[in-house]
Amino acid sequence: MTTNDFVNWYDLWNEPEFEQTYLAWPLIPAERVCALNGEAKAGKSLIVLEAAACIASGRNFLGRPTFQGTVLYLDFENHPRVDVRPRLKDMGFGPDELTNLQFASYPNLPAFDTPAATDELNKLLDKVQPVLVIVDTISRIVEGEENSNDTWNKLFKYSETLMKRRGVAWLRLDHTGKTDTKGARGGSAKSGTADLSWKFTERKSGIYSVKAEFQRMPLELTEFELNRLTTPYLHHSLVLKQTTEITNRVEAAIQLLEENGYPHDLTQEKTGKVLREVLKFPIGGTPLAEVCQKRRGSQPLNRLPKNPKTQYESQFTQNENFKGKSDSEYPPIDEYEMSDAEYKYYYPEG
Predict the structure, then answer these.
(1) What is the C-alpha to C-alpha distance for residues 288 and 20, in angstroms, rounded to an integer?
(2) C-alpha distances in angstroms, 2 versus 5, 7, 119, 122, 143?
(3) Is 135 exposed, middle or buried (0-12, 13-18, 19+ CB in 10 A)?
(4) One digit per residue, pLDDT tens: the chain, 350 residues?
(5) Bridge partners of 64?
(6) 3-state secondary structure (DSSP) of residue 238
């Protein structure tokens, strides 16, 4: 441990407010340690391979934009020629789109629950510079007893802590036990060391349920369903009812902002802060971006203030939305137009 390990409070306070972003919404948040657990042959590897290729190529995932970047995929389950290439071809990907997908099949690495893993993974991160590391499956690359909490605590100590320090997302795939209702095989620490643990279940042919078993972070969706489609190419989509839920949430956030008189030109960061901290409406990621986009594309209803300019400026400064502005920043009384919410604020009787 060195002095560099201590937090500099002044630097921290000067950093922008944290907003959770996603590499592939809603499955893979950025800079988080995540787990995806499900029965063997349920389809976990296929959905994760699609997400990885979409992130690497910049293609949309589940109809939403991805954060494009390099993905390091450590595969201990699937053969490149026999399994991986046919799947990627069915998804419509070609070699020219996959240069940022650094795929290692059955790599020769030290067990991830041992001290040697830290140095080896550090070297890989330096060389590849990924935004995401995927391990399929994690039980293939630990040497400790799977049912021992000590194994998974060591995994976190020697491998996953490194990812958190370097701001790299980590997704480990794993199999559930013989009884699916018991979750992933192994001790309780297996899920407890992750920021987010998903349970992946095939409900019926081509329909999959994804549910958060454990989370230490706010989620826009704690449960959703996926539909596997084969035309015009192999891909997954959100089941319609989930899309409707997201749309309703976006509209509810817009209505809340309008009712409280917040300007349409707020930045995404400020809009998120207002919704979460002031209006107590948790939202982020793609839905928050949609809120801002829709509000900027629409204009509030207009009315001119009727009170004298001095009284207008006095009342204007009482509005929390506009505190801290200098006199020169107030819009002239003959130019300023008010929304319905602002009109009600200034003229509660009228």
Answers:
(1) 11
(2) 6, 11, 18, 18, 30
(3) buried
(4) 676 789 999 999 998 887 889 999 999 999 999 999 999 889 999 999 999 999 999 999 998 899 999 999 999 999 999 999 999 999 999 999 999 999 999 999 999 999 999 999 999 999 999 999 999 999 999 999 988 999 999 999 999 999 999 999 999 999 886 555 554 555 566 777 899 999 999 988 889 999 999 999 888 888 999 999 998 999 999 885 556 667 778 888 998 898 888 998 888 888 989 998 888 888 877 788 888 888 887 544 333 333 333 333 444 444 444 445 444 444 443 444 445 554 454 455 54
(5) 61
(6) strand
Instruction: Please name the residue that has the structure tokens 């499956």.
Output: 137
The one-letter amino acid code at 200 reads: F
For tokens 């949309």, the residue is 60
19: its two tokens: 């907003």
- Looking at residue 140, its amino acid is R
Which parts of 169-214 fold into alpha helices (H)? Answer: 189-192
Domain boundaries, the chain: 17-238, 245-296, 309-346
What is the C-alpha to C-alpha distance for residues 200 and 132, in angstroms, rounded to an integer? 20
How far is Cα of residue 61 from the mean position of the Cα atoms in its chain? 12
Task: Say which CATH class 17-238 falls into.
Answer: alpha beta
Opening angle at CA 339, ends 334 and 344, nearest 5: 100
Q: Is the pTM of this model over 0.85?
A: no
